[in-house]
Protein 1
Amino acid sequence: MEQLYLEDCYLTEFDAVVKSIKDDKYVVLNKTAFYPNSGGQPSDTGVLTHSGQEYPVAFVGKIDGIISHEISVPGLKPGDKIKGIIDWDKRYNLMKYHTASHILSAIIHNETDAQISGNQISKDKTRIDFSLEDFDREQIKSYEAKVNAVIDRKLPVEIKIMPRDEALNIPSVVKLKDAFPPDISEIRVITIQDIDQQACGGTHVANTGEIPHIDIFKTENKGKNNRRIHFKFV
């Protein structure tokens, strides 16, 4: 299946053909611009249209490499030609949060060498978990201004699908080497100029200037060497 969002995060409409349907609601297409729920980023929602009928897409998942679109109205059949329309407001908001989380993660790692252990993006806030021995609320809060300074620099964000060998020359990608099965010949790399470069399958803005300033509104000590930051846009 062609995953259109990998190269164009701003694509909001596309034409496709229904390949299969399960239980009259799980739709597999020959290609899609809908981002599936993964990597801490919620799935896109939107609608599929066919012959004047709308089929709302409530959730998109990926199982064994196959992207499935859960529709809330039955009726589509294999072979139907559809138009997919992404809920752009939701997608764009998640794009901004995802790129902001990369900036914050890079700043934390560069200053403390802490490893990022997880993240969860939502429509109105995002959290990041990272390993750090000391729990210093003032230090963590100081990252807010540094992220906002990067946003204000309006730096380009590049998405590039690279040959495996080339991507594995990037230090931050090498750390994830074991996460890529041997049959993966290409790796998608997100580069924020002068700030960060890492493998990522999520959707991102093209320039940091598109992101609102962030507010680190909550910090948590989640146990030994486990810290959590919550931030939102202001």
Protein 2
Amino acid sequence: MSVLPAKSALRIFLVTWVGRLVSYIGSGLSSFALSLYVYQSSGSITRFSLTSFAYFLPQLLLSPVAGALVDRWDRRRVMLLSDVGVGLGTLSSWLLVAGGEAGHWKLQHGYLYLTIGLGACFNALRAPAFQATTALLMPKQHLTRANSLLELAAGTGQIVAPVVAGALMGRIGLSGILLIDLGTLSLAMGSLLLVRFPTPPTSEEGQRGRGALGQEIATGWHFIRARPGLLRLLVFITLANLTLALVLVLLTPLALSFTNAATLGALMSSSGMGMMLGSIVMGVWGGPRRRVLGVIGFHVLGGVSLVAACLPPHVVVLGTAVFFFLFSIPTMSSCAQTIWQTKVPLDMQGRVFAVRRMVALVAPPLAALAAGPLAERYFEPWMAPGGALAGSVGQVMGTGPGRGIALLLVVLGVIILVNAATAWLSPAMREVEEALPDALPAPSSLRPVA
């Protein structure tokens, strides 16, 4: 087998990335539309948050198995299998919604949770496969830029989806939006059929971890646990994911407490430009030489942005705060992802990344379950006129609908700042790049699939 040329590797990455970009937009459309439908038809933050729970829980449970399969199988075929399964979940949602819109049955939220969960089961394969493939294709000095392109694709979906879905809901309905998602998924699968991924070289660590499926799953965790810097980074990112998940769940009911659904879509799209800008900045800049400074520093920016939620309710104020919060996400994530990709052998990245993803994915289901009760039972009553905090915190932030959620965002901002401070005070985290040797081989050792 011949050596994979640099230009061919870049072409493969870009073709695959374009397919992912299109798929992110379609997934964003259906995700926003489904969540909005559940919230508007139920008026319940808890039921709304259960859409996130149904999406993240299967990925949490299946991530270790997915990682082992990624390292065993051709990663392009893994991504194709993932797309087929996600498509089945979306198709099932469309059948339920279309039948409900046609009057054949009453659409129940519980059935939608099941179809969302079906797609999520297969989505567990996609992330570790593509993240591990990025390190296969891109040279080490350009990994942060490549990761920023992945964040850019996600940010584009964040910007386009709310405005487009909000406009389309009244014209083609939820079923029409789900059909668009199926179309974009087909285009993403087509991009995968145009390329072949290189085969990762075998490392000593990876070879020792081969064996039964259960043994391979455990290998990923043992690799992380034996390296305190990576373990501390994992804890840091898990807490960051928890705050992010809570913010994303709470943003919709907070905005709808003082504005309408159309304005919500515009607000989420404009603030989502922060994610796009952060990705562009990292793509041009490439990030700091010490990636850990980018991880911690941009996390601080996110925490300060959330504290701005204490200001009076206004679309511009909330949009600006969320803009800078989302700006911090791709910048922090790109730096963290590059650290993982450079310190983990290529033939172990599927297992290690899947375990990392499993631990990090504990956050969204917890956020989905906790957001509703925290807001509805505690923070909102506390900040209602005559509530427990109306005469103290309420004098500063105001009282009434949405003010309790705003206070909860302030608390999350403080948690972020504490997380950043403790990470910087941890030598294992602060010196992770110097303490661990790079694991990436020379580009000439990478070979295409036969």
